Amino acid sequence: MTDDAPMTLDAWLARLEAAHPVGIDLGLDRVSKVAERMGLLQAPIAERVITVAGTNGKGSTVAMLESLALKHGLSVAAYTSPHLIRYNERLLLDGVEADDELLMAGFAAVEQARLQQEPVSLTYFEVGTLGALWAIAQSRPQLAVLEVGLGGRLDAVNVIDPNVAVVTTVAQDHAAFLGNDIQVIGREKAGIIRSDRPAVLGSQTLPRSVHEHAEHIGALVHALGQDFNHQGKETWAWRGRDASQAQIELVDLPDPHLPRDNAATALQAFILCDIDVQADACRRAFAEVQLAGRMQWHGQWCLDVGHNPHAAEYLARRLGECSGQRGSGRLLALLGMLDDKDAEGVMAALAPVVDAWVTVSLPGERGRSAEDLAQRLGHRGLTVLHCADDPLAGAEWLEAHMEEQDQVLVTGSFLTVGAILQQWQTEAGERPASIEGAR
């Protein structure tokens, strides 16, 4: 950067968005070259690294891994994407968002490295990922948990070799980049797995290609339903194996109010990092874990970023389980989605539990219009109450027209949920204390 004026984080992000001809450009050649120049491949960025890939469940798995580490007194870095409100949410150090200065220092380190010798063009996500890895490496925490952005094998995060690789779920999403063949998608997700290192497979319905790849390269597979499992409803028990393959059982674990398969998967991955696991610390971790935008309740409003059919099916099951809380009230959905998402599949999954819909338009080239969503709902014979220009206008309409016992589901996109969360924070002057978290 040559400008004399000090750069702000917003200015950095705007420049990064405009720097590469396309927003998503899968491949590790460019990223690896810059990572090598930055020294990120010469030494581990943390004492232990867990990489998490999957279609759904990545965010909750990362959050529970982070909580487990913190409750065991470990220093921990967690890198995730996308963010809901602030870019800083993408990098947490010991549970605290990275400040602007650290993030900008990471961007500057990437910029300096990519311009060495022959310049290398990087996407917004690639610069962000390399900058986060640089920031993590500065403190070399006891554990780093890295969420894969898209796919696995060719994602920028995969430039780092993990001690433990996790695949949560595999379903169709990002078809423009990963295609529609579930076996191909599975192989791409499995690309984060390393030979002779633990691979935790966190779903009993993963495509066979995930298992085949893990076995082919000689990974140490720990599969849900075979090598580890969970049982129970309100409180639950977990059974699995530690790094020495000794059997372990933990009982009386509290409900984390996040998908139980992901909780069991996080626990298995954490244990495989050869950590002295304490039952009480695990109980505190699951009791206190929080994750914005996943079954997050604020009074009568439930926020969930689910944006594909698999996520919507889980959401519908959970909402169906608590339908008795509404009494005679309705469940109204405020729906905003991007144009490259399977809107039909999401609508089909949610239709059994939603009584009526308010559709909202999202901005940008990928944004889908409220009218498009409304038309699709209408073709299904579903009730559309209103079309709004944006999520805030939709929420304002609902607040004026919903009844006392009605509940509102805000869903379909990080952009939809983030807009509502940001408005609540603005009205409260800070993060609203009344948000109850997931339940």
From TrEMBL:
Coiled-coil region(s): none
Keywords linked to the UniProt accession: ATP-binding, Folate biosynthesis, Ligase, Magnesium, Metal-binding, Nucleotide-binding
E.C. designation(s): 6.3.2.12, 6.3.2.17
Pfam families: Mur_ligase_C, Mur_ligase_M
UniProt xrefs under Gene3D superfamilies: Mur ligase, C-terminal domain, Mur-like, catalytic domain
Domain Mur ligase C-terminal: 293-414
Role according to the record: Functions in two distinct reactions of the de novo folate biosynthetic pathway. Catalyzes the addition of a glutamate residue to dihydropteroate (7,8-dihydropteroate or H2Pte) to form dihydrofolate (7,8-dihydrofolate monoglutamate or H2Pte-Glu). Also catalyzes successive additions of L-glutamate to tetrahydrofolate or 10-formyltetrahydrofolate or 5,10-methylenetetrahydrofolate, leading to folylpolyglutamate derivatives.
Family membership: Belongs to the folylpolyglutamate synthase family.
UniProt catalytic activity: (6S)-5,6,7,8-tetrahydrofolyl-(gamma-L-Glu)(n) + L-glutamate + ATP = (6S)-5,6,7,8-tetrahydrofolyl-(gamma-L-Glu)(n+1) + ADP + phosphate + H(+); 7,8-dihydropteroate + L-glutamate + ATP = 7,8-dihydrofolate + ADP + phosphate + H(+); 10-formyltetrahydrofolyl-(gamma-L-Glu)(n) + L-glutamate + ATP = 10-formyltetrahydrofolyl-(gamma-L-Glu)(n+1) + ADP + phosphate + H(+); (6R)-5,10-methylenetetrahydrofolyl-(gamma-L-Glu)(n) + L-glutamate + ATP = (6R)-5,10-methylenetetrahydrofolyl-(gamma-L-Glu)(n+1) + ADP + phosphate + H(+)
GO biological process: folic acid biosynthetic process; tetrahydrofolate biosynthetic process
Organism: Halomonas binhaiensis
Pathway(s) this gene product operates in, as recorded in its UniProt entry: Cofactor biosynthesis; tetrahydrofolate biosynthesis; 7,8-dihydrofolate from 2-amino-4-hydroxy-6-hydroxymethyl-7,8-dihydropteridine diphosphate and 4-aminobenzoate: step 2/2; Cofactor biosynthesis; tetrahydrofolylpolyglutamate biosynthesis
EC top class named in words: ligase
Domain Mur ligase central, residue spans: 52-194
Protein name stated in the entry: Dihydrofolate synthase/folylpolyglutamate synthase
Gene Ontology MF terms: ATP binding; dihydrofolate synthase activity; metal ion binding; tetrahydrofolylpolyglutamate synthase activity
GO CC annotation terms, alphabetical: cytoplasm
